Amino acid sequence: IQASIAIDEADVVLFVVDGKEGLTSNDYVVRDMLKKSNKKVIVVINKIDSKKSSSNMYDFYELGFDNYIGVISAEHGNGVNELLKAVTDGYEAGYEEEDNNIKISVIGRPNVGKSSLINALLNEDRVIVSDVAGTTRDAIDTVLKYNGEEYTLIDTAGLRKKGKIFEAVEKYSLLRSMKAIDRSDVCLLVLDATTGIVEHDKHIAGYALEAGKPVVIVVNKWDTIDEKDESMKEWKKDIKYNFQFMDYAK
Asked: How far is CA 109 from the centre of its chain?
């Protein structure tokens, strides 16, 4: 579903295939999906970094597209300039229209259910949901229509403790999350009912506080809780104690 939405919204589709592995049955499935879309497709043959993998390159012409970039090694940075030229060919540089909607960023630790919450608000499977912590690497904007008004929801990458940012991509995710908080008008801080409040939840709230953003605290995964009335009292007490530095938050 997510792939179909991405294809529908795209002007150009980069169909990335594995030059080392060669053609697979999944490649044909994606090929059929892209053929039906009638979008401009560029087949990007990645991992062409040896004589053996380069010999596989011509097998991909069997997919039947017009545009191929076959000198790509993303790991080594080869062929990237050629790819950029192919992507932008025929298009003029432009500027995005300013989004005047009220922007709501959904922030919290990895795997607290931010993407699931956005899907529930949108009532569609627009954001990829996974039970593997840290699936969302980037900030994703979607438009929510409610009571005749449009709002922009920003699904952020899960904010990890700095000591656990081992990969450059996770450092980038943290920066994107911080940027999402900065450009939002309201932050939804999502807590996990199954784990309770942890210290890092307060650190994330601190980011929003430092940015001067209004915050709404959301306790997710409430369906897992027994004795909900009693638990509600305890949660309200815990939230009041742990987030006393932002006692204005709903």
From this structure: 14
More confident site: 163 or 18: 18
Question: What's the pLDDT band for 239 if we cut at 50, 70, 90?
Answer: very high
Mutual angle of helices 199-210 and 168-183, in 10-degree steps: 50
Could you tell me which residue, 137 or 117, shows the higher pLDDT? 117
Distance between CA atoms of residues 157 and 149, nearest Å: 26
Token pair 């940075």 is found at 77
Could you give the CA distance from residue 192 to residue 222 in angstroms, rounded to a whole number?
8
What whole-number distance in Å separates Cα of residue 195 and Cα of residue 211?
Answer: 26
Evaluate if residue 165 carries a pLDDT over 50: no
Rounded distance between C-alpha atoms, residue 28 and residue 8, angstroms: 19
Question: What's residue 157's pLDDT?
Answer: 62
Separation of alpha carbons 27 and 17, rounded Å: 7
* pTM recorded for the entire structure: 0.58
Mean residue pLDDT of the chain comes to 82
Q: Is the Cβ–Cβ distance between 191 and 218 less than 8 Å? A: yes
Q: What gap in Å lies between CA 75 and CA 189, rounded to an integer?
A: 36
Helix 25-37 to helix 2-9 angle (10° resolution) is: 40
Where are the extended beta strands (E) located within the chain? 12-18, 40-46, 67-69, 102-107, 140-146, 149-155, 186-192, 215-220
